[in-house]
Amino acid sequence: MAKNSPVDDWFAMETLRARLLEPSGEAVERSIQIRKNPVTGRTSRIAFSRINETEAGTDRLPPPPPAARQTAHCPFCRPQVLARTPRLIPEIHPAGRMSHGKSLLFPNLFPYGAWSAVSLFDDRHYVEIGTASEKSYADCLVNCADYLRRVKRHDPSADFMAVTQNHLPSAGGSMVHPHLQVQADAVASNHHRFLVHRTLAHRQVTGRGLFDDYAERETAVGERIIGRTGPWTWVAAFAPEGFFEVWAICPGETSLLALDADAWRHLAAGMVRIQKFYRSLHRNGYNFGLLSVERETSALELRAVMVVRSNYAPWVRSDYTGFEVMLGDMATFTAPEETARLARRFW
Asked: In the chain, which residues fall in CATH 3.30.428.10?
């Protein structure tokens, strides 16, 4: 285990107590736990008093959105996908679109950067959370990695890469047809830029990877470890910045371009299990993200993040309030140790 780590305290937390009088006149205290993220240094708050709050739309899984049946108008469905989606430039792939299994990849018609693409899962228009096959995810991830390798060969400056997912409009998805977004740029995102400096500083001081150290310390504690799939360690985030936030860490591996098909298959297996966990909570939206910096000097090890989002259903409250947007502290209601306990059932 690393010594002289630049991390002041890996699992720092503080409890605040709010004193108030109940409507009945009884004096009570409510506890709020503030935790500091050992990677970012940002704080998050756990408001335990809201754990039993009944939130509209979470007593059962909401019905599918209306667009779940609108296959004829979906540009990602067959047969219209080949006529209504753009094509890759020949320098990336002569055929214009890339296939792996049932996954089909093509450029994002509305790109967010120099190299934006979309990778479809399979031929189904709508896939409810937790019901996709592991193979469909693995094929999709392998397709994404193949695309990014081609981009890197063509444009060596495209160092900052990401594979993300927005499942349903509540998570930012504009299409219900399941897909991953792929991104490569010469310009770093805010998270890329911060993590480049943070992980390099840790390696310079300790000689170790930051996420390698993190996974080792979480394993030693054990409270938030969920399980493993191949090289990936799955853990409930100590200081969550989203509801039921889960990390998958691949210690020692800094390049997503270097992962083999087995590693992607193991990541897909964990992703589906976490979706099933979210489904057990009657949630239907989530985000997924995996970032990498494709430089030989990169110290950023691979870490996938999954967070559940507010349900896509009428009158459901957003999971981002003024506290998160204006104060910058995420406020959740469930302890990460409880998240891990609930998620272990799916391992």
From this structure: 74-312+319-346
Q: How far apart (Å, rounded) are the C-alpha atoms in residues 46 and 266?
A: 31
Q: Which helix (H) or strand (E) holds 290?
A: strand 285-293
Provide CB contacts within 8 A for 27, sequence distance 6+.
19, 20, 21
Closest listed residue to residue 35, CA positions, set 51, 18, 15, 50: 15
3-state helix, strand, coil in the chain (%, to 5): 30, 25, 45
CB distance 246 to 274 below 8 Å: yes
Name the DSSP letter for residue 183.
E
Question: What architecture does CATH give domain 74-312+319-346?
Answer: 2-Layer Sandwich (3.30)
pLDDT of 5 above 70: no
Nearest to 246 by CA among 238, 231, 235: 235
Could you report the per-residue pLDDT of 151-209, keeping only the tens digit for each?
999 999 999 999 999 999 999 999 999 999 999 999 999 999 999 999 999 999 999 99
Question: 3-state class of 265 per DSSP?
Answer: helix
DSSP string, 22-71: -TTS-EEEEEEEEEE-TTT--EEEEEGGGTT---TT-SSPPPPPGGGG-G
Q: In this structure, are residues 293 and 339 in contact, taking their beta carbons and an 8 Å threshold?
A: no
